[in-house]
Specification:
mainly alpha, 2 domains
Length: 123
C-alpha cells in the first residue's frame, strides 16, 4: 500500500470512529507518520502523539500470544491455580516485567504474582 493510501485510510477510519483500524495502521507506519504528521486529520494526529508518548515512556504493544498468556494467568488466578501460573511464568519469564503487561492483570493475578515475587509491590 502506498503512503498516500495509508494516510487516506487512517483519516477515513478516524472519521468513522474506527479507532482500532486507525491505530493498527499508525502502529505499522509509525516512523513514516512521525515525519508526515501534517497529512493526518486532527483525531489521527492525537492518536499518533499518544502512541509516540507511550513509546517514549517505554511501553510496547503486546502481541496476541502475550495477551493470551496474560488472560491465562488471570484465569488461573481466579481459580487460585498457582501451579498453572508458575508454568506460564516459566514459559515467558520476562513478560511480566513489561509495564504494559501489568495493566492487563486482574487484582487477583497481581496479588498472586506479587506473592510469588514476579511483580514488585506498588508503592
Amino acid at each position: 500500500m502506498r503512503f498516500s493510501e495509508i494516510v487516506k485510510s487512517i483519516n477515513h477510519a478516524t472519521e468513522n470512529l474506527d479507532l482500532v483500524t486507525s491505530r493498527r495502521y499508525i502502529e505499522e507506519n509509525l516512523e513514516l507518520l512521525k515525519e508526515k504528521r501534517h497529512l493526518l486529520n486532527h483525531n489521527a494526529r492525537e492518536i499518533l502523539s499518544f502512541m509516540i508518548k507511550r513509546q517514549e515512556a517505554g511501553y510496547r504493544n503486546l502481541d496476541k500470544k502475550e495477551l493470551a498468556s496474560i488472560r491465562t494467568v488471570n484465569l488461573y488466578a481466579e481459580q487460585f491455580d498457582v501451579r498453572g501460573i508458575k508454568l506460564i511464568i516459566k514459559e515467558k519469564p520476562y513478560l511480566f516485567f513489561e509495564k504494559e503487561a501489568i495493566n492487563f492483570l486482574t487484582d487477583d493475578a497481581k496479588v498472586i504474582l506479587t506473592g510469588i515475587g514476579v511483580v514488585k509491590k506498588e508503592a
